[in-house]
């Protein structure tokens, strides 16, 4: 006689091995160290974020960045990467005047502040935002060779 199994009772599944490394990994976007088990959405500001790029395209914020680059840059040529940020620099008033004038001709700029607030809430809730991504050179131990020495 063989082993009889009850068809309604299945054998338990094997457990997955949990050998999480506690070593830090370097992000390829921001070059910061992070732990793999602590990498929520929104952790990396420089990682690709589909929602943020859609907001930037829908609201034509690239047009505002161009205006700020050409009209509201300081003497060294530096300008604010995010035109709607208010910092304590001397060009903040000039930048907001440019944005106000531009919003007359590009009305979709009015959507940027409410969409940016929605995105900020989504990042805080963990619904959107970019995650750290492992640097491939760290995985393969294949760091780029900048100098080649031939003998």
TrEMBL record:
Annotated region described as Disordered, given as residue ranges: 1-20
Highest taxon listed in the record's lineage: Eukaryota
InterPro entries: Sprouty
PANTHER family xrefs: SPROUTY-RELATED PROTEIN WITH EVH-1 DOMAIN, ISOFORM C, SPROUTY-RELATED, EVH1 DOMAIN-CONTAINING PROTEIN FAMILY MEMBER
Protein name (Swiss-Prot/TrEMBL): Sprouty
Organism: Molorchus minor
Taxonomic classification: Eukaryota, Metazoa, Ecdysozoa, Arthropoda, Hexapoda
